[in-house]
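Re-run with default settings, no changes from the original entry. Doing this only to confirm the output is reproducible before filing.
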Amino acid sequence: MFETVGGFTEDGYYHYGGRGFYEGVNYMEDYYFKPLLFGDGSINEENDLVLKKMASYCKENDIRMICVSSALPPKRLKEEDIDQFHQYFAALCDSIGVPFYDMNYAKKMDRTGADYIDKEGHMMLSLANRQTDLLCEILKSDSPEEYFFDSYSEVLKNLEGCVS
């Protein structure tokens, strides 16, 4: 077991709780993060092909496949055009008959920058648990579309009161 001091181990590293979680570490405001740009030049066609093969395999073997995009920090949603990413993957998943759940569009995903370890989107355990609970609720629902905003402008409007 690691002994932590202010979120750091005794040797100066963050305590890694496993699977992307740094428990008890606060959001790093001064952490430099270069916004990611999404567009035609950033699409790897090989990845799309692999996703399509996975979908075919799942259908052939009667396996339910879904695609999920985890909720990003509010600051990123406000500063980057995440809608391009959303539209691309929604269309791709639709074309192969795979449900796509973009948790950035989820109506019940209230969060602040303090819910993340960094601006890249690595969640603190409490937000990861909330997102998991919400995803379970969505997967059990007969109307999953009711859990999501219809447009990026609605997503941004919902974030107006959020602390980045």
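Confidence is low (pLDDT under 50) at residues 1-8. The radius of gyration is 18 Å.
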